[in-house]
Specification:
The protein is an all-alpha fold. It folds into two domains: 47 residues, no CATH class; 79 residues, no CATH class. The chain has six helices and no strands. Helix 1 packs across helix 6, helix 2 packs antiparallel against helix 5 and helix 3 runs antiparallel to helix 4. The longest helix is centred in the N-terminal third of the chain and has 26 residues. It is globular, with a radius of gyration of 18 Å. This is Haemophore haem-binding domain-containing protein.
């Protein structure tokens, strides 16, 4: 049986997946071809994101104050960024620890001269999860 709602959701889902993949492809194409090091690929970026994300998760799990600050900031809208900033200004060692964790991603972004926004990555993961 044909249900228009299902067809619309499938079409929308396909458009989201296509858009996310195109966004990732555009980011990959934007990588300078002159700097064609093996690290300047979508796979390397994804791998760096995965490593940084996993280590950040482990760090936050072992630092409940930082975990709470970041978790609670998610529901604060525009004020969330200020809440996170205020927490880490008061806890500079935790900020330094997280900066060290993020170093591989920062180095890759500088080396490849590409900047993929977190929203781009979130759209990709949303598309893959649908």
């Amino acid at each position: 049986m044909y249900t228009p709602g299902i067809a619309v959701r499938r079409g929308f889902g396909g458009a989201v997946v296509g858009g996310a993949l195109l966004g990732l492809a555009a980011a990959t194409i934007a990588l300078p071809t002159a700097a064609a090091q093996p690290q300047c690929t979508a796979a390397a970026l994804s791998s760096a994101l995965g490593t940084v994300s996993a280590q950040t998760g482990q760090y936050l799990s072992s630092h409940p104050g930082a975990n709470d600050a970041v978790t609670n900031a998610g529901g604060q809208g525009a004020g969330g960024e200020a809440a996170i900033r205020n927490y880490f200004v008061a806890h500079p060692q935790e900020w330094a620890d997280l900066q060290r964790i993020a170093q591989p991603l920062r180095a890759l972004r500088q080396q490849c001269q590409v900047d993929v926004a977190p929203a781009d990555i979130a759209r990709l993961y949303d598309a893959m999860a649908s």
